[in-house]
Amino acid sequence: MKHLSVALSIIVLLVVLLDIATTNDRLRKLEAKMAGEVDREVTELPYVDDDQLQAEEIEQAADTEGAWVPAVSFDLPAEACVAGEAVPLHLPDVRERYDRELHINSYLHNSTIFILKRANRWLPQIEPILKANNIPDDFKYMALIESALLNDVSPRGAVGFWQIMKPSGKELGLEITSEVDERYDPIKATHAACKYLRKAHGKFNNWTLAAASYDRGMAGMQRAMTNQRVDSYYDLFLNEETARYIFRLLAMKEIVEHPAKYGFKIDPSHLYQVEPLRYVEVDQTVQNLVSFSLANGANYKLLKRFNPWLREERLTVKKGKKYSIALPAG
Asked: What is the pLDDT of residue 158?
């Protein structure tokens, strides 16, 4: 027993010595690499206008094992605008607030990568709705910062791509019951958001204030403007969420439009695509949506994937009412 204990002690000692030697070897390699980089500041990576070239340069800055990637301080765009309304980047606090949101979203790698992938599927469906409602194209980025294009529910009960509260949804014409909640329908929720934005622009005659009011509410924005006696979003002292809102929109706009500039290199084949659908009109109560999906060549999982607004396993259809249920085209 004594000999066994001694043998085990020797084995443990050898493992520890081997681990120390391996760690020291890795540290020596890292130190040698860093010494070779001492004359080149990370912030001096030669950014160019060509997005693809810049992405390659950032990728090459990592070590061969992909274990070290530089934290880069990006140059801000020379100018920025929301729906054609200029952002006063000459103001130090405005510049810093934009700078902060641009860097935060640039380094939220997993989250931003999946936003970019989902955007390829959903923005082509959102854009024509905005255009048809005379809402500037920049407002499509609101859906990205509201929900990351996910049908999530906030702690306050805001739902869907556009994070609409129940009372607001009903005011905007969405059906919200125990069986049907159209806040979960990205298309119908986009139409509802357009109604709000048109009304807000009519009140403020300014798209930036209309966008900020989507977060704080029209009454809240008007109250802040009246109390502080200013009429520009950029001159207002606001709660943190609303104070960041426009800059988050600007940051997401910049990254989506120039992903490689901020280190996002996504193969086009990795982007999510619009999925072809067919629609089945229903004008009578469906007692069991599981059976309905199977009878129509799909399954309940796919029915829920394409119709998240269906909240129960049955659908009550009142007289004179019709629903259009999406199913895979194939």
From this structure: 97
State whether 17 and 90 are in the same domain. no
Give me 226's structure tokens: 């009246």
Question: Cα(first)–Cα(last) distance of the chain, in Å?
Answer: 70
Say how many domains are in the chain. Answer: 4
Instruction: Classify residue 289 as exposed, middle or buried by CB count within 10 Å of its CB (0-12, 13-18, 19+).
Output: buried
The pair of structure tokens assigned to 169 is: 């949804």
Residue pointed to by tokens 């959102």: 126
Residues 119 and 53 in one domain: no
- At 123, which CATH number? 1.10.530.10
pLDDT, one tens digit per residue, over 132-152 is: 999 999 999 999 999 999 999
CA distance 123 to 213: 22
Q: Which domain holds residue 182?
A: 81-270
Side chain identity, residue 79: E
Each residue's pLDDT tens digit, 219-244: 999 999 999 999 999 999 999 999 99
Is residue 88 in a domain?
yes
How many angstroms separate the CA atoms of 218 and 220, rounded?
Answer: 5
* Three-state DSSP class for residue 245: helix
